């Protein structure tokens, strides 16, 4: 069996990096020749996690067809979120917790998706189903990914499976997940260290909706004023990126990870669709979205529906 | 939780009917309100199976949005193989063993795909993972589906998981699967009972390849001469269907289920792509394909590749 690369989405968050490592570990135990890589540098939160559990940073690649014929995807499936040359390789396995969009294969494959809060939750259960033990260090990483994706089990994406996985992983890793989780989330939200351009790029993902090129970024913070005070600069960075990359619509969702409220900045068109999606009125291209913390569950589906309606 | 319908593809084969029944049974045990239905009348083989195990024929529907908001798909995902109004409902679950193509959702879902010979094989393992017992009658149906899809474990789509599932199901159903399997396959190949139009429609599926509307039918037989002797009538029926439904290219694969050889009839264009896909030369729009028995593994992928190349 020839070697395959395992990776999460571009602009990797903690789950994208960790799920690749976890799935590569599981698949190697099941006899596959695999290497976990990343489609970008780890963010501040992920660096905190990797340091905390003394885990090396994965190798960063931009293209994959120059190395392998086949790959395994975690935490994404949409081609525009994947390697630039994803169309040139065969996807043999996917483990994901997102919608399926624009993902097409020529042949049957392994695809495991569940509407849970985090890919690492699905992987926790796949280790159990395959009777492979999770090492303590890897359990710590997977625990971190679930805390990150579910904002310490507070996001509406959180399911009972995520809660069960966090408990099981915290026990294996011997970590107090509440205190560790707050420390980790705070480590990931040091906004002062980032430029406006970095802020709007760090966790941004691209979507195609009704033929429009839609970019959605999320900025986590422990104080929304840290983002609102930079509104002008952030919107300028959104406009610059849109002009450069050809985005029709750019949304930045600033989320307070401690109280689960968000502020939305909008650049581009159609703004009427955004207002319809969130049943709100934009004032100076901005709106408060109380209780909105999940891009996947509370932003993408209503926006998609509004675009189609 | 509101009711959901569970169904396989149009032109249902034994797996499409049985997997819907099996998945509906499993999901009902897990607390879902579901009903297994079919997108067409059972074929001769499936009728033999349903009679043999004293199982009622499922209700046949053409549309689903008039009844439910959400559905679960088995044994298919491509929209053109699904209910006519599949775009108007939410797909919450998929269990399948085919390529993924043209399947898009607005929200995350449960998706379980494995490159094995039969959906019922995946379901056999899902019963085990959920610790739900398979009743003897249902085991007989699932066993029949695997025998049907893998041509009694002879098709190149057959995996070790299919072999293991057949053994486990045969034990539960208390069936000698070899002798039962031959009896079942023969029951499904009584070609004399079908008109030419019925023959080219019975197991036909639609595919979109490089923008072309491609129709591929498979006729199973225990003697290829039963099909070859009707070549002129079958090709006329293919041409009639193509004109009526707007197919660009129509392939009929006649397969001897006992010795695993096929004869291919081709109507429409581009024929050069067909010749390239199977590395053959058509003579009077016909070619022998020795060893080819699987549409999914030996026809669709090379044709897709040839279209793209």
From TrEMBL, chains A, B:
Its EC number is 3.6.1.1. Its cofactor is Mn(2+). The keyword Manganese applies. It comes from the Bacteria. The keyword Protein biosynthesis does not apply. GO terms for molecular function: inorganic diphosphate phosphatase activity; metal ion binding. One of its GO terms (cellular component) is cytoplasm. Keywords: Hydrolase, Manganese, Metal-binding. It catalyses: diphosphate + H2O = 2 phosphate + H(+). InterPro entries: DDH_dom, DHH_sf, DHHA2, DHHA2_dom_sf. Residues 181-307 form the DHHA2 domain. PANTHER family: BNIP - RELATED, MANGANESE-DEPENDENT INORGANIC PYROPHOSPHATASE-RELATED. Belongs to the PPase class C family. This is Probable manganese-dependent inorganic pyrophosphatase. It comes from Secundilactobacillus odoratitofui DSM 19909 = JCM 15043.
